[in-house]
Amino acid sequence: MSSLRITGGVPLSGQVTVRGAKNLVPKAMVAALLGSTPSVLGNVPEIKDVSVVTNLLGLHGVSVTRDGADGVLTLDPSNVTQARHADIDAHAGDSRIPILLCGPLLHALGEAFIPDLGGCRIGDRPINYHLEVLRNFGARVEKLESGIRMSAPHGLQGAKIDLPYPSVGATEQVLLTATRAEGHTELRGAATEPEIMDLIAILQKMGAIITVQTDRVIRIEGVPELRGYKHRALPDRIEAASWGSAALSTGGDIFVAGAKQADMMAFLNTYRKLGGGLDIQDEGIRFYHPGGDLNPLIVETNVHPGFMTDWQQPLVVALTQAKGVSIVHETVYENRFGFTRALNRMGAGIQLHRECLGSVPCRFGQRNFLHSAVISGPTPLKATDINIPDLRGGFSHLIAAMAADGVSHVTGIELIKRGYEHFTDKLAGLGADFDLEER
Ligand SMILES: CC(=O)N[C@H]1[C@@H](OP(=O)(O)OP(=O)(O)OC[C@H]2O[C@@H](n3ccc(=O)[nH]c3=O)[C@H](O)[C@@H]2O)O[C@H](CO)[C@@H](O)[C@@H]1O
Ligand SMILES: C=C(OP(=O)(O)O)C(=O)O
């Protein structure tokens, strides 16, 4: 177990590079299972979610080789085979990706077994849409004491699906299952995040026929065979925004090489309204604190093209430094403000409310979830000891400790490795004052 001893008060300044998106790369790896020939995926970061999927694919006979520092993966699905349940179970709780193996494994083997899912604990995170989607395609689903077993004795057939909420994972489930299902699929209520569009681009390279219409409708014409792809993963817009929030919270200046403007429009608008400085270039984006007061804001998280929920937690640290009262209404997850307790211990003034404090009532409004935050600022932050709760909440704690006066001890930093590549090297390169302690 490693922890960080952080001496705060140093503005983070310099350059970091972001590589392929955590929320695309593991899914692109799963898509390789659908091909009859090897796939080549570039711009792959060294993060835990990639190793988890590498292991899971390996258990199913897919060879995954990595070409050193360039981050190029070659995935060869020519010997796909059923994995032992016990080996798969060893990955229970590691990430949310295993559920996406179902469609490709059902096509390849006629059956699939997946472990209990992991991912950040920021809400209940049910998988009812996924299971319903798979049943619609003709899969038999059996919940076991641990994990889920599926079979498709009569193959998978195209279906009409209407998602009650534009779920990213359920949309990907449909895409990864429908492309090789027999006949046509119509998906209504689809999510349209940039990572989904990149997955669609990959599937099209493999030979799939997918039409994205307006109003969240996606049509897929099933094809009997797909081939391997060659693709460079789109950059990680969540990591890019996290560094932007780090620059603002610490009074620093960070150039994020690889950050792509088109995928970050909602974040960039919010950042500018807050008073953050931006210099948008082809090679990346410079995020900086221009001096003076930051402005309080009302932010509502939403599905794309709205303000992404995964941007919320790091940005809240910057909002503690804005002059006045800010409101953040979290409409994607019911329980994503637990990280604010540590910020309050550090001196922040954040109150949580059950009501929808935004312009649109959300799914959580009439229920018992503390899903709106009122943040009064500016509040100087002082150091404390923190145990990281989840990926983005953890990054926000790191930023807060970097901004705070004094020495903080931060434990649980393994969680950060799920989505931030080489983050301690990057922090060191930005001038952060910290020691890595191994226990
Ligand atoms: C690995 C990955 O890509 N993770 C991202 C993905 O998560 P993930 O794909 O898990 O998120 P979803 O878009 O599916 O979840 C959105 C909402 O739908 C609900 N829901 C979802 C599925 C289901 O079967 N039933 C159900 O009720 C969830 O509880 C949540 O309230 O999109 C989220 C929303 O942009 C991001 O925060 C995550 O970083
Ligand atoms: C919620 C997140 O990821 P996951 O779905 O993998 O838990 C995230 O990346 O912030």
UniProtKB/TrEMBL annotation:
It comes from the Bacteria. Gene3D superfamilies: Enolpyruvate transferase domain (3.65.10.10). Its main location: cytoplasm. It catalyses: phosphoenolpyruvate + UDP-N-acetyl-alpha-D-glucosamine = UDP-N-acetyl-3-O-(1-carboxyvinyl)-alpha-D-glucosamine + phosphate. Transmembrane segments: none annotated. Its EC number is 2.5.1.7. The keyword Zinc-finger does not apply. Keywords: Cell cycle, Cell division, Cell shape, Cell wall biogenesis/degradation, Cytoplasm, Peptidoglycan synthesis, Pyruvate, Transferase. It is found in: Cytoplasm. The modification 2-(S-cysteinyl)pyruvic acid O-phosphothioketal is found at residue 120. Pathway: Cell wall biogenesis; peptidoglycan biosynthesis. The active site is at residue 120. Residues 7-427 form the Enolpyruvate transferase domain. One of its GO terms (molecular function) is UDP-N-acetylglucosamine 1-carboxyvinyltransferase activity. InterPro entries: Enolpyruvate_Tfrase_dom, Enolpyruvate_Tfrase_sf, MurA_subfamily, RNA3'P_cycl/enolpyr_Trfase_a/b, UDP_GlcNAc_COvinyl_MurA. Phosphoenolpyruvate binds at residues 22-23. UDP-N-acetyl-alpha-D-glucosamine binds at residues 96, 310, 332. Belongs to the EPSP synthase family. MurA subfamily. Cell wall formation. Adds enolpyruvyl to UDP-N-acetylglucosamine. NCBIfam families: murA, PRK09369.1. PANTHER family: UDP-N-ACETYLGLUCOSAMINE 1-CARBOXYVINYLTRANSFERASE (PTHR43783). This is UDP-N-acetylglucosamine 1-carboxyvinyltransferase. It comes from Kocuria carniphila.
